[in-house]
Specification:
With 81 residues, the protein is α+β, with helices and mostly antiparallel strands. Helices cover 22% and strands 30% of the residues. It has one domain: Ribosomal Protein L24e, Chain: T. The chain contains two helices and four strands; from the N terminus they run ββββαα. The longest helix has 10 residues. It is rod-shaped.
Length: 81
């Protein structure tokens, strides 16, 4: 399974932790952790081309498809030619 959104390109990022103890001291390293994007596997039916696409989408992309329509969104992202 691809760990990247097909529409928005979102994937995981590395971010630093922040402890409450660092507020009391000048130096207290916490370490870094990988933050995963909220990705869902969805089947999207596009009636204009009469096809179903199985895509890994972020939740933001799912909301965009619901708002603008599947054909327009997938065409803009380059999935449909």
């Amino acid at each position: 399974m691809v760990k990247e959104c097909a529409v928005t390109g979102k994937s995981s990022t590395v971010g630093g932790g922040y402890s409450n103890r660092i507020r009391a001291t000048q130096f207290n390293p916490v370490g870094k952790r990988r933050r995963q994007a909220n990705l869902q596997t969805k089947k999207v039916f596009v009636p204009e081309v009469n096809k179903t696409f199985k895509l890994t989408l972020s939740t933001r992309a799912i909301k965009t498809i619901n708002k603008n329509g599947a054909y327009a969104t997938l065409k803009k992202s380059g999935i449909i030619k």
